[in-house]
Amino acid sequence: MTGLLIRLFIRHPARTTDQRVREAYGILGGAVGMLCNLLLFAVKLSVGLLTGSIAVSADAVNNLSDAGSSVVALFGAHLAAKPADDRHPFGHGRMEYVAGLVVAVIIIAVGLDFFKGSVGRIFDPCTVRFSWLLFAFAAGSIPVKLWMFFFYRGIARRIDSPVLRATAFDSLSDILTTSVVLLSLWTGTLTSFPVDGIAGVIVAALVIFGGIRVVKDTIDPLLGEIPNPELVTALQAKVLENPDITGIHDLMMHNYGPGRYFATAHAEINSSADPVRMHDSLERTEREVALSMPVVLTLHCDPFEENDPEYKRWRLAAVDAAKRLDGRFHVYDFRISRNAHSLLLRFDLLVPRGCSADPAELRRKFQHELGKNGEKIHVLIRIEHAYV
Q1: What's the rounded Cα separation, in Å, for the pair 254 and 54?
Q2: Under a CB-based contact definition with an 8 Å cutoff, are residues 142 and 175 in contact?
Q3: Of 75, 124, 168, 202, whose CB has the highest number of CB atoms within 10 Å?
């Protein structure tokens, strides 16, 4: 069914990096969600009113909020596909995250409202009228929600959409919610215990928990989270395909919506190479990355003395010293210079975030380790942290 809908409503479905295709996927997901959830809302609200069950009514309004969320997702997909302009030079891709946050707020608000109503029903219970026909109508939402879960998950994986991932999770939680409601509807006829109110509290708590989870999933990329390690590894490998580049460091990646990354990095090249040729070589790599990956890359030229024996000797010594001190340390931007009394070694040291090592203490340790080579040295270190 999902494949049929995609073939019917989306042109070139494999081009998931194309913003027009992403918009079409988002609109399809939003439209399907809106229609299905409005249908489920009408059915469950009718069952809730006819039986007098607050749990079923709460579940119905939960579906109504899902329909509203689908409308938000529709607008989010449309706005995210808008091209860059003077005020938003990186595009509008983050609107998908904003839309996901709005979805989360709606979910939490509905959950809190029915939590309050369900608690009141526990202390002031009402008679629930049970009917197998109405029970069957309410139970019919479970296979519908199960299909919606697979539908949303499949599209979310295709276009890497946090909004649709959140909607898929919400569909899955709806199945559990409806199951609890149906159980309470049946057991309410067997006991005077306020099962309906308790079930309503459970439903409301599940809805609130789902909303909080969606908030976390959408706030993280808005704040700026670490990029996918697989994407980082692939980008590094692509850059190092250039034979002129011997290393890469200071890589930073910024996300401006699913499938939209802007990155900068330092590319290590031989200092004796022709600068014009190196400029053209790095630009060629930038173009190749843009054509094969969802990344706009800018490379900074970082020359080093590849053919200087003394430079190579001391650089290797610094790298070995870093490994002895901590296997997670990484040395780059290495420079050497001499004065009348000593050898000056300057380099950047990449350390893990949260590392409590004092810069002065690290400098002392490096001077001690490198001083074992029998020459008077002076070390200057700049501490850096990774952004990927």
Answers
A1: 46
A2: yes
A3: 168
Q: Quick one: DSSP state of residue 386?
A: -
Contacts of 360 (CB under 8 A, 6+ apart): none
Q: 350, 341, 348: which is closest to 378 by C-alpha?
A: 341
Distances (CA, A) of 184 to 57, 81, 134, 286, 338: 13, 44, 14, 60, 82
pTM for the full model?
Answer: 0.65
Residue 205, Cβ density class (10 Å: 0-12 exposed, 13-18 middle, ≥19 buried): middle
What's the Cα-to-Cα distance from 332 to each of 49, 250, 265, 370, 383, rounded to whole Å? 69, 9, 13, 16, 11
Helix 141-159 to helix 2-9 angle (10° resolution) is 50
Residues 269 and 242: beta-carbon distance below 8 Å = no
What is each CA distance from 361 to 294, 330, 370, 376, in whole angstroms?
41, 17, 14, 18
- Asked if 192 and 207 count as a contact pair (C-beta separation under 8 A), the reply is no
State the DSSP H helix or E strand holding residue 384, giving kind and residue range, or none if neither: strand 377-385
Q: CB of 149 within 8 A of CB of 168?
A: yes
Cα 242 to Cα 234: distance, rounded to the nearest angstrom = 14
Say how far apart CA 184 and CA 58 lie, in whole Å.
Answer: 13
Q: Which portions of the chain are predicted below pLDDT 70?
A: 17, 19, 69, 72-77, 127, 130, 163, 258-259, 340, 356-357
* Residue found under tokens 């090592």: 357
